[in-house]
Write a structure and sequence with these properties.
The complex is a heterotrimer of chains A (501), B (146) and C (112). Chain B has 146 residues and is mainly alpha-helical. Chain B has one domain. Chain B has helices at 6-28, 37-55, 59-89, 115-138. Chain C has a single domain (2-50, 65-106), classed as Orthogonal Bundle (Helix Hairpins), CATH 1.10.287. The chains are: A mainly alpha (501), B mainly alpha (146), C mainly alpha (112).
Chain lengths: 501, 146, 112
């Protein structure tokens, strides 16, 4: 198997998504089996690709149908792709395991799994493709499936949140399509590597900045940067818990951050030296996101809405890492992509566990859960320690690298801001623990039982990975995150690796 | 769903077969003339929707139609992905542009490699899918229980 | 040049409808307008003066065609737009069943 495993990352979940409606008419539970098998296979494939990259260190390129690069679609698997694909497939598998029991109070199980498979196919497609219109198609596939998943429970809140998410998200998608149209008018090809070569000679004319701005608007909507974040606090809480874990942990990063990085760094070749205004803009938005997300999270009474605002805040961290633009800052941002995917996925799964056991998400009504659901509570506590940046968990290292990057770029105020808001993060995450998990004298302890085995198993998998990522950060840094940051800093060298190899 | 007046029913009786045939023609000649799977699939779905709207239907018929079109749609999807994976089985690339009749001579019906089978699969999927969407949105008020 | 600007103007009209209208169905119609305008813009990007439609009728003919690639891409984009519009309409129908109104100022239970 040379590099022929690459299209399977997309073909396998799509095949599962089309087979599930057929088999579920015969046996209702077959949907769970097919979906979980596909999720495990996806994780195996992306791990295999990552291991091949570690030993071989050449970017894996696959030309679909054997067509040459300027004519057909190429699939590219380099270190950045490996990082994002691993994060996405791990969280996807954990969410699938979790939903086997969580869906007991929803009807239409097989529809959930079929849509989930389409989301995974779209997300994997975005990460591996090397063709810009193909990226748009996969973005839209996963986005449309996710609108249906957010509105899955068809209750009042879910329908309103789903509609809001849908309109705002689709406007972002249309902005990306408009930008691709403008880009095609200048480049006459769709392959990202060839486009980057054309863009290298094009220069930074006003048309160039117009295209960059339109792309930025589209990706900002998908990524929930602060002026464009209005859909997130409604959509993420209303979705079923495994979908929230996937949305918050993976979606906003793959569709927003990864796609933006690929387009801005590798196709347009922007970097701190030749486009400082763009990077300062990213910094400004990042700071705004951190502050707004962090402050608003304090005022929330709903468990999942608080976690959703926290996601906005953590995306701000990733944005300032990208905005600073030197090696350590980008390493910090990419490491935070991994750490936040695992950590926030874990926290949303614990919220689902609490909701499954007690039936409510209102923090003022819950109390005394630490005795009844110890595994869930401990997963939450350790996961939030990781997100807040406490050593030796994964979040500590990502924030450490960010601060090192900020200091070496002489932006001391950014380092102080990052450290300060880490304590704010710890504060509002502990607010949940204080209100819901520990006992209060003036409230009755809520009746609850520990969650079923598969749900706990999914949470423990993510917890173990968070701890392992923290303790074993050095090999991950050297082999995965470091080279991924190099890919981004290399900018236009992407074209050489794809076309030459 | 109620039917419509007898004039509409007469015209629908005449046109439904022609629409279906025309849609199939557009699907099959996708590699020679404009159109292809998507456009032809929409026309095929339109022929079914015309019959359904003009003559009306009872709830049981709608339920059966919905189940049948859902199954056909999934089969179309599976057919498309199997076509793409067939390149693997034959030892060449994913989505290889070849077919059992080879590449054929240009401008003939049996030419163009994998484009013809892919168009057929897409036509089946889009046609059945659009009809299912129409039933789910526009039919009488019943909840699709699965 | 003028048709391209007309497309962008159409897109702005659609965007105005999405932003200011209160009825959900009008928002969906506005969004469809935005979408069609962008697809039209994309098709017109491939235009060349005095060129033929890209259909080969005779193998030995000299080939001066307009660019066929945007047409193929727009076909895909139209289908994506179809899926999006039908999903929005399905959501709008469910919202009507629950809330008994299409007015978005009354569908505001989530706040903060």
């Amino acid at each position: 198997m040379e590099s022929t495993f690459l299209p399977l990352l997309v073909a396998l979940p799509m095949l599962a998504a089309f087979l599930i409606p057929l088999f579920a008419k015969l046996w209702q539970r077959s949907a769970d089996l097919i979906a979980n098998a596909a999720g495990a296979a996806l994780l195996g494939l992306s791990a295999y690709g990552a291991v091949r990259l570690f030993t071989d260190s050449h970017t894996i390129v696959y030309r679909i149908g054997g067509w040459a690069s300027t004519l057909g679609i190429t699939l590219v698997y380099d270190h950045l792709t490996a990082l994002v694909a691993l994060a996405l497939n791990v969280v996807g598998l954990a969410a699938l395991l979790f939903s086997v029991r969580y869906l007991d109070h929803y009807t239409g199980r097989w529809k959930f799994f079929s849509l989930f498979m389409l989301v995974l196919a779209g997300l994997n497609g975005v990460t591996i493709t090397g063709d810009i219109f193909n990226m748009f198609v996969f973005i839209e596939i996963s986005a449309i499936a996710s609108y249906a998943l957010v509105a899955f429970g068809t209750d009042f809140d879910e329908l309103e949140a789903g509609f809001k998410y849908m309109v705002i998200g689709e406007i972002g998608g249309i902005a990306i399509l408009l930008a691709i149209a403008l880009l095609y008018a200048k480049a006459s090809t769709l392959n990202m590597a060839v486009v980057s070569q054309v863009m290298a000679e094009f220069g930074h004319t006003p048309l160039f900045w117009c295209i960059v701005a339109t792309f930025l608007v589209g990706f900002a909507v998908k990524m929930a940067m602060v002026p464009f974040h209005a859909w997130l606090p409604d959509a993420h809480p209303s979705a079923p818990a495994p979908v929230s874990a996937l949305l918050s942990g993976v979606f906003i990063k793959v569709l927003g951050v990864y796609a933006m990085c690929r387009v801005m760094f590798n196709v347009f070749g922007l970097s701190r030296t030749n486009a400082p205004a763009f990077f300062n803009l990213l910094l400004a938005f990042g700071v705004l996101s951190i502050v707004a997300g962090g402050v608003l999270a304090y005022a929330q009474k709903d468990y999942k809405r608080l976690l959703a605002y926290s996601s906005i805040s953590q995306i701000g961290y990733i944005l300032i890492g990208l905005g600073i633009g030197n090696y350590w800052a980008i390493v910090g941002a990419l490491f935070h992509v991994l750490a936040h995917a695992l950590g926030k996925g874990l926290l949303f799964l614990t919220s689902g566990s609490v909701e499954h056991a007690t039936g409510t998400r209102d923090l003022d009504k819950l109390s005394g859960l630490e005795k009844k659901m110890p595994l869930t509570v401990w997963s939450y506590l350790l996961g939030s320690l990781s997100l807040a940046g406490v050593p030796p968990f994964a979040g500590f290292f990502s924030k450490l690298f960010l601060i090192i990057g900020a200091v070496s770029a002489k932006m001391y105020w950014l380092a102080i801001l990052a450290a300060l808001f880490s304590t704010v993060t710890l504060g509002y995450l502990m607010k949940v623990a204080d209100k819901a998990f520990f006992s209060h004298k003036d409230r009755e302890p809520t009746a609850a039982r520990e969650s079923p085995t598969t749900m706990v198993l999914a949470m423990l998998v993510l917890l173990v990975l968070t701890v392992a990522l923290g303790i074993g950060f050095k090999p991950v840094l050297d082999k995965l995150v470091g080279p991924a940051a190099q890919v981004l800093l290399n900018g236009l060298g992407y074209a050489r690796t794809v076309l030459g190899g | 769903m109620r039917g419509m007046s007898s004039i509409v029913q007469q015209i629908a009786r005449l046109l439904a077969g022609v629409l279906f045939l025309f849609g199939t023609y557009i699907v099959l000649h996708g590699h020679l003339t404009p159109g292809g799977g998507f456009a032809g699939g929409v026309l095929i779905a339109a022929s079914f929707i015309l019959v359904s709207l003009a003559f009306g239907s009872v709830e049981q018929t709608e339920r059966n139609s919905y189940t049948l079109s859902s199954v056909v749609e999934s089969l179309g999807g599976v057919l498309f992905v199997s076509l793409a994976l067939a390149g693997y089985v034959a030892g060449t690339f994913f989505f290889q542009n070849a077919s059992i009749y080879g590449t054929g001579n240009p401008l003939q019906l049996l030419s163009g490699g994998i484009i013809l089978p892919a168009n057929i699969a897409i036509g089946i999927k889009v046609g059945a899918g659009l009809f299912a969407i129409f039933l789910a949105l526009g039919a009488s008020r019943f909840v699709m229980k699965d | 040049m003028v048709p391209l600007f007309a497309c962008l103007f159409l897109m702005l009209i659609g965007l105005y409808a999405v932003v200011t209208k209160r009825n959900i169905i009008r928002i969906i119609i506005g969004f469809s307008l935005v979408e069609y305008a962008v697809n039209l813009f994309f098709t017109m990007v491939g235009f060349k003066r005095d060129a033929l439609p890209p259909i080969i009728t005779d193998v030995a003919q000299p080939r001066n065609f307009v660019d066929p690639l945007p047409q193929a891409l727009v076909l895909t984009a139209i289908v994506i737009g179809l899926a999006t519009t039908s999903m929005m309409l399905a959501l709008a129908m469910r919202i009507y069943e629950k809330y008994r109104t299409f007015d978005i100022t009354e569908i505001r239970r989530l706040r903060g």
